[in-house]
């Protein structure tokens, strides 16, 4: 069965109420192809507003969630709070959380399992730095990050997970991976899932690409057989560009 494409828009720490209005007006009024799922991830203060403005078929994601249920965790966001706002997606393991906020593979694994077990779908990010790629360690790094997630999950849990391959050297740099570079790693991730989880999970799991995706390069990337959509940063802040990316699967 063909996998539904997922196009995620990660606003990071950008945007305001007006951007919620602009992007929701554009996406709500567009006819999105069947077989394409769209999820937008505004900053936490705008999640409730976004959920009220975006049409129901467009998912809204948080950019982080705690692995703890509640309590003295100043600044954190709980899964129950997200569910209270009808937010049913979260991005976890983004390289900016790993690098700038010191989130380890284990921390991310615990966050992923807590979200999934409590009914929130996860876009789980993995990806190597340039130094890893140049040292021929791309798969070593990506597989280690995947294992940090897999170690906490049952095979059934993978139905609620989308893997985002985001090479760190391509994020926000304008240096997009070539379709061949992205396809190669996506194929390796799918093979890893087949051998470490199950062939059925490997076949069903969506593996999306992130890193300098824009309205001009998305169609070519989408033509690769193991690329099941995108996690878009900068270009998701521009309504027309993001809509073009949402339409990039022919
Ligand atoms: O989550 C999105 C990625 O970090 C990609 O960001 P970018 O499209 O601005 O390179």
UniProtKB/TrEMBL annotation:
Keywords: Gluconeogenesis, Glycolysis, Isomerase. It holds the Pfam family TIM. InterPro entries: Aldolase_TIM, TIM_sf, TrioseP_Isoase_bac/euk, Triosephosphate_isomerase, Triosephosphate_isomerase_AS. It catalyses: D-glyceraldehyde 3-phosphate = dihydroxyacetone phosphate. GO terms for molecular function: triose-phosphate isomerase activity. The keyword Isomerase applies. The keyword Plastid does not apply. Transmembrane segments: none annotated. Pathway: Carbohydrate biosynthesis; gluconeogenesis; Carbohydrate degradation; glycolysis; D-glyceraldehyde 3-phosphate from glycerone phosphate: step 1/1. Its EC number is 5.3.1.1. HAMAP family: TIM_B (MF_00147_B). Homodimer. Belongs to the triosephosphate isomerase family. This is Triosephosphate isomerase. It comes from Polyrhizophydium stewartii.
């Amino acid at each position: 069965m063909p996998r539904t494409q997922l196009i995620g828009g990660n606003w990071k720490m950008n945007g305001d109420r007006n951007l919620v209005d602009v992007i929701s007006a554009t996406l709500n009024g567009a006819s999105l192809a069947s077989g394409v799922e769209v999820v937008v991830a505004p900053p936490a203060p705008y999640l409730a507003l976004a959920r009220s403005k975006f049409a129901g078929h467009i998912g809204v994601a948080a950019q982080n969630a705690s692995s703890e249920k509640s309590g003295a965790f100043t600044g954190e966001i709980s899964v129950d709070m997200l569910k209270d706002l009808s937010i049913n997606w979260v991005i976890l393991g983004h390289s900016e959380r790993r690098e700038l906020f010191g989130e380890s593979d284990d921390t991310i694994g615990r966050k992923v399992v807590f979200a999934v077990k409590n009914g929130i779908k996860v876009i789980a990010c993995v990806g190597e730095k340039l130094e890893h790629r140049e040292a021929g360690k791309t798969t070593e790094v990506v597989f280690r990050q995947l294992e940090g997630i897999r170690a906490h999950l049952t095979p059934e849990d993978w139905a609620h997970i989308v893997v985002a391959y985001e090479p760190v050297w391509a994020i926000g740099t304008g240096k997009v991976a070539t379709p061949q570079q992205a396809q190669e790693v996506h194929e390796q991730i799918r093979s890893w899932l087949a051998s470490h989880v199950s062939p059925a999970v490997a076949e069903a799991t969506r593996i999306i690409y992130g890193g300098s995706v824009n309205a001009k390069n998305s169609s070519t990337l989408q033509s690769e057989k193991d690329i099941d959509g995108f996690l878009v940063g900068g270009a998701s802040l521009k309504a027309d560009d993001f809509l073009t990316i949402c339409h990039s699967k022919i």
